[in-house]
Amino acid sequence: EVEDNLLQGSKAVKLTIPKSVKKIGNNSFYQCLKLTTVILNCIDLEEIGKSAFSGCASLIEIVLPQKVTIIKEHTFKGCEKLKKIVFPDKLEQILKGAFSECTSLTEVKLPQTIKQIGKGAFKKCNKLKHVVIPGVLYIHSNDEVPNEIQKSSEIKEFQIPEKCFYKCESLQNIVLLDGCQIIGQRAFSSCTNILGIKMNVSKGSVLGEGCFQDCNNVMNVEFNVNDQATLRFESSTFKLCGQLREVIFNNPDSFESNSVNFGSYVFSQCKNLLHFTFPSKSEVDIGDGCFECCQ
Fold it and tell me: Fewer CB within a 10 Å sphere, N or C end of the chain?
């Protein structure tokens, strides 16, 4: 076992963790600012503690051993030069802020076993462009969604949590697949280069408060409606999306009756929104300021 705080603030440049280690403690390598290389030879490693590598601003790459199933709070927060992460095949959880402020990270590919992602897990990853959560989420530049990630038998009713991708300013095209049911508060807020959003809508779908607020380059939003779907827009969902021009509902008759709800300020200050057609099964009660300042 590597003890808590063991080499906190050390000037070490390279570390090799031996095979016998099963646990790395909390803050074990916290703010080892010169650390560039960590070799995890510990094939039986099961646990990496909170903030274990947080603030390791020179760390470039990490390959996580196969027995790790949980990445704890802030484990790699602020690893500014971290470009590549290889996730274990049976990873189940990534907790709060685990990779927040990893400003060189460009790609995240998670396994089908993933069940939960914590608040702000990838917040302020400014260069992040490509994200894969099988059956849940596909973020890309311009290519189509590969067939092998469209479905996942293990993922149901997945939630993209609060501020998960907040201020990830290189994201461009968001595709939310059948496994994604709830998008949390400000999950994609201030992602200023998002151009398009597509979402498969099923029973219990929710767009959380401000989840795409301040995404000021979004031009198109498209909803693909599955049978017996329901959809709730919480307040300020697309507020300040100044370039938004079109919102499309494909197969709108597939909604349940009175099952599309709009909160307050959903499209507030979307100044380029040219037209909007409410699905026929929307509730009559629309929130205050839903289309405020839409010219």
Answer: C
